[in-house]
Design goal:
alpha+beta; 10-stranded antiparallel beta sheet; two-stranded antiparallel ribbon; 12 strands; globular; binds fe (ii) ion
Amino acid sequence: MNRTEINDIIRESDRFIRSFGYVMPPFAYWSPEEMKTRTADDAGAIREARLGWDITDYGEGRFRDLGLFLFTVRNGRQADLKNGMGMLYAEKIMISRQNQISPMHRHVVKAEDIINRGGGTLVLELFNSNKDGSVDETSSVSVPTDGVMRVVEAGGHLALAPGESVTLLPGVWHAFWGEGADVLIGEVSTVNDDLTDNIFREPIGRFSTIAEDEDPVHLLVSDYDTWL
Ligand SMILES: [Fe+2]
């Protein structure tokens, strides 16, 4: 993706998120320069926990069809997970645009609640895992949705209206997209490592490669290792 496109998506997404009354934390609006000085000073935790802007086309170069906007608001410590106590949780705010697919994947460690916070209908395609972790093409999938179990056939679609959510435990394969309109999505999950805990059905990447055709308005999480 070009940096111009990334910058445009940041501005559009910020407007969309604010239109629902959700406002992101102060570090969302730091310039790259401020991010650099602050993460070297009193805000190292932002870089460590990989908080911030995250825009991906999964390396395929067609964001409108295959992509996701994310902002990691909080994220715990992997070490706490091993200790079984401490900051074991994470929160993201995301946008799936109408008919924009987040491709089929599962997690090994992370359990996640995916919440429709407003906009269109959020549709999820679901499969169970076979013992070897591959997609189970046959068994029906049972998922908790706001305290109520719902069952879909293998590869069936679960539709979440604004306000509804689903709990996806590790091993549940899922792809999702907005239907009818763009959707604001909340994610509440186990502490999260996006570098290692996303297993995709198709061989694609989790992050975009970026062509630098203008200066970044804000750094993406995937910029931290090279820019900070
Ligand atoms: Fe996921």
